[in-house]
Amino acid sequence: MADHPTLDPDLLDKVINLAKRRGFIFQSAEIYGGFRSTYDYGPLGVNMLRNVKQAWWRAMVQLRSDVVGLDAAILGPPAVWAASGHLETFTDPLVDCRKCKERWREDKIEGVCPNCGSKEFTEPRAFNLMFKTQAGPVEGEGATAYLRPETAQGMFTNFANVLSTTRRKPPFGIAQVGKSFRNEITPQNFVFRTREFEQMELEYFVPPAEAEEWYRYWIQARLDWYLDLGISPELLRLHEHAQADLSHYSKGTTDVEFAYPWGWDELEGIANRGDYDLTQHSNASGTRLEYFDQATNERYLPYVIEPAAGATRAMMAFLLAAYHEDEVGGELRSVLKLDWRLAPYQIAVLPLSKKPELEGVSREVLSMLQPYFMCDYDVTQSIGRRYRRQDEVGTPFCITVDFDTLDDRAVTVRDRDSTEQTRVALTDLLGELRSRTNQS
Ligand code: ATP
Q1: Which of 172, 192, 294, 357 has its CA 20 to 30 A from that of 3?
Q2: 9: buried, middle or exposed (CB in 10 Å: 19+, 13-18, 0-12)?
C-alpha cells in the first residue's frame, strides 16, 4: 500500500481544467479578476459536494445508533477560542523571502523560496490563522468575534446540551458538517488548501479506558469509507504521527493520506484528544462537562476520538482518483469513474433526436426517474458526443430514447465504464437501475 507511486503530476491540471470547463468548480469573483483561494461550486460541483457530505452523513450518522448530528454557529466569541487554545496556539510559522518578499509557511517550503529559489528568509513569527471580525455595530473588545477555524468546538460547547436532550451515554458521538475558515498563509493546490472550506467532523466521546480501542476502530472505519466509495487501495495509506510531533494534548494522531499528484499528503486526520477539550471548556466556562454514570455512580470526563475530514478536500481526491483516459471505438475518451453515489448526475436521459415525437416519452422517463436519481436531460449534439460529455462528468448511466421506444416501450441503458448497451422495457427500468446501484 505505502510505497505505491503517487498520481501523475499532469493530472492536477487536467482535473482543474475539467472542473472549470464542465461547471464543477469556478474561481470565485472571476469577472473581477478572481479572489485568491476562494472557489465557487458550479451546477455539477454542488451536486457532487452534496453527495460527498451526504455519503459521510449516511455512514457516520444515519447508519449508526451511537452518533447524533449538530449544526453549530460559525461565528463565535473569543472565550471559546481562548479555552480551546486557538487564540494562543493556532498559528503557523510565517517567513518572508528576503529577495522577492513573498510570504511563506516555513514548514511547507524546505528552506527554498518556491517563487524565486532564494534561501534567505526572515526569522519565523507565529501567525494566527483565525479570521477576526466584529459582531454588532459597536466596535471594541466586547464586539470581537471569530469565524470558526474548525467545526469541532461546537460539539464540545454543546456537549451538555446534547447529553441532556438525547440521553446518550459514552461511547457516543456528535457529528457536524459545515464551513470553516483559516487565513492560510499559502493556500495551494486548487481546493486542497483554501481559506474557506468545508469540514466533516465527528467527536466521539468514550470512557478513558476504551480510548485506544476506539482510536484504532475509527482509523480503520475512516479508511474503509474512502475505499467503499471507490478510491483504490494503492492511492491511500495511513501515516501515524511520531510521539514527538504530537500537540501537547494529543495521545495519538493518524492521517489518512492520499497519493495526490504532488505527493502523499493529508486527506483526513484521526486523533485521540484525551479529555483536553472538555477539561478546557469546563474550567473556562464553569460548567462541568462530565458524564455521570448512574450504574456505577461515577462522574468522569470522557476522552474524545476525533476523525476530522475535509469535504472539499475529499471531493478533490475523489475527482483525482476517478479521472481516467481510455479508448472507445478508436477514440480517446476521458471518463470520471465515480461511484454512482458521488456522481453529479446519476442518470442522463437522452432522446436520440430533437424531433417532437420523442419528447413526450423522454419526459415521461425523466419524471419516472427524478424522484430516485439526480438526472440530466440533454437533446443537443449527436448521441456519441452526448455519451462522451456524460462520461467526462461521471454519469454512470445514459438512457437513450429512440424511435423504437414509441412502439416497443423500451429504452437503451448505456453503462459508463463498460460502454455496454442493454435494451430495457420501461416497466422494468426503475427496478433495473435500482438493482445496478444495489438499492433493490
Ligand atoms: P494542515 O496541517 O495541512 O494545515 P491540519 O492538520 O491542521 O491541516 P486539521 O485541523 O486536522 O488539518 O483539519 C482536518 C481536515 O480538514 C484536514 O484533514 C483537511 O481535510 C481539512 N482541511 C484543513 N484545513 C483545510 C484547508 N485550508 N482547506 C481545505 N481543507 C482543509
Answers
A1: 192
A2: exposed
- Of 383, 393, 370, give the one whose Cα is nearest residue 414: 383
Q: In the numeric block, which cell numbers belong to residue 330?
A: 478508436
The cell numbers describing 423, all together, are 435494451
Q: Which atom of ligand 1 is nearest to the CA of 310?
A: 20
Q: H/E element holding 15?
A: helix 10-21
Q: pLDDT tens for residues 212-258?
A: 999 999 999 999 999 999 999 999 999 999 988 888 788 899 999 99
Q: Ligand 1, closest atom to CA 182?
A: 27
In CATH, the number for domain 10-75+151-319 is 3.30.930.10
Which three three-digit cell numbers place residue 100?
522577492
Fold of the domain built from segment(s) 345-436: Rossmann fold (3.40.50)
Domain boundaries for CATH 3.40.50.800 within the chain: 345-436
Q: What string of DSSP letters covers 134-149?
A: E-SSS-SGGGEEEE-S
Q: Which residue among 199, 236, 306 has the greatest number of ligand 1 atoms within 8 angstroms of its CB, and so is best to mutate?
A: 199
CA distance 152 to 159: 11
Beta strands in 207-282 (DSSP E): 236-240, 252-260, 263-272
**For residue 240, what are the CA distances in angstroms to 123, 208, 265, 307?**
30, 21, 13, 13
Q: How far is the CA of 174 from the centre of ligand 1 (A)?
A: 19
What is the torsional sign of CA 215, 218, 224, 229?
negative
For 312-350, what is each residue's pLDDT tens digit? 999 999 999 999 999 988 889 999 999 999 999 999 999
pLDDT at site 1: 45
Region(s) of the chain under CATH 3.30.930.10: 10-75+151-319
